[in-house]
Amino acid sequence: MSARVGIVTGANKGIGLEIARKLGREQGWLCVLTARDEERGRSAAESLLSEGAGVRFRQLDISDPDSRERFAKDAEQEFTAGIDALVNNAGFAFKGSDPTPFAEQAEPTMDINFFSTVATTERLLPLVKRSPHGRIVNVASMSGHLRIVPDAELRAKFASAGQPGGLGHDELMLLARGFVQDVKEGKHKEKGWPNSCYGMSKLCLIAYTKILAAREPTLKVNACCPGYVATDMSGQQGHKRPDQGALTPFMLATGALDGTSGGFWSDEKRIDW
Ligand SMILES: NC(=O)c1ccc[n+]([C@@H]2O[C@H](COP(=O)([O-])OP(=O)(O)OC[C@H]3O[C@@H](n4cnc5c(N)ncnc54)[C@H](OP(=O)(O)O)[C@@H]3O)[C@@H](O)[C@H]2O)c1
Q1: pLDDT tens for each residue of 152-198
Q2: 231 lines ligand 1 (CB under 6 A)
Q3: Nearest protein CA to atom 1 of ligand 1, as residue
Q4: Number of structural domains in the chain
């Protein structure tokens, strides 16, 4: 029997590297460790290979349409039985000390954490659906909790994501673009948005998770918060180690889920959004 295939984005360091390590060590799995930087990705994959993990490196910059296309075309040739787990881990956050004006922070943050993650997922979806076990794991954050949205009407709209008659894919895209525009114009507060580009990017990703789970009932699609993890993103300040942060995403990719899809998880438990 051929190995199950798990793809991890942004896996050259941090939580992604640890998810890749766990997947590559898991009996019966092959991990495709992806990274936007060829050298950093190869070197990470080599270090896991030297530990005996089942790992293969492929370049994937989720924000680059050419890179996405090349990766997907190669994957169609290479993994004809499909992709068993896609772990969307790649992410970005401006540091508090970054001099970039707030008005310019929404676009790059929403691009990587939301729009490009969605584009990557949609491009790889046919391959994930080819697997009889297809799973998608979106590494989100507690920063994307619904309570961050000050406006009650907007909050209710997001809360309805994936429910019959609730927020759907196209409307979510429009809302997300609207947020970026409102931040650019300095109007986001008066329009009822939160003052967090990172939070909104992860909130949109969780909403997308719920919409996709409803749309694709044969798949298990879940989002999670890895916890506050000591990585470059957190300035190495988190109280969890990266291998501890990898536990929930890894469980959602490989563990027994009893059919759960469309959930938001933390510390290996489903939690309220
Ligand atoms: N650390 C925390 O406390 C925490 C808390 C909640 C959620 N998260 C989420 O957990 C995930 C992993 O974060 P981390 O803490 O491990 O951060 P990290 O150490 O900064 O790693 C982020 C990874 O994403 C990659 N990446 C960024 N943009 C990319 C792109 N366009 N295409 C492909 N890869 C890209 C980075 O690649 P480069 O090395 O090339 O930059 C890096 O490999 C993120 O989604 C983050 O939002 C983290």
Answers
A1: 999 999 999 999 999 999 999 999 999 999 999 999 999 999 999 99
A2: yes
A3: 229
A4: 1
